[in-house]
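Recall the central idea of this unit: under ordinary conditions, the amino acid sequence of a chain determines the structure it adopts. In this exercise we apply that idea directly, starting from the sequence alone.
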Amino acid sequence: MHPRDDQRPKWVADEKRTSLLLLIGGRFRVGLPDRTVVLAQQGDYVVFHGISHSWYAEEDLLGLVLAVRWPSIPGYAGPHKRTSGTP
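Accordingly, the structure predicted from this sequence is:
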C-alpha cells in the first residue's frame, strides 16, 4: 500500500527480470525509458522485461499494486526507502 506522492527514490537499473505490475486500487504512474504508463482503473497492468523503471503513487485511495517478478532471485531485496508516509 502506498500513500499519495510515494515514489521510488531512484530508478531501478540493471534489472534482468520480467515484471508485472497490477493495479488493485488507487492510481500509479510507472516510468519506463521510452514511455510513462498510468495505471488508473482496477485491473490495469503493465508487463516489461529487463529495463529500468520507476513508479509514483498519484492517489492514496487504497494505493495498492501487486508486483510479480520472475525469475526469483534467492535472497534478493532491493533497496526501497519511502519518500513519504509510513512503512
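The beta strands are 18-25, 28-32, 35-39, 45-49, 54-57, 64-70.
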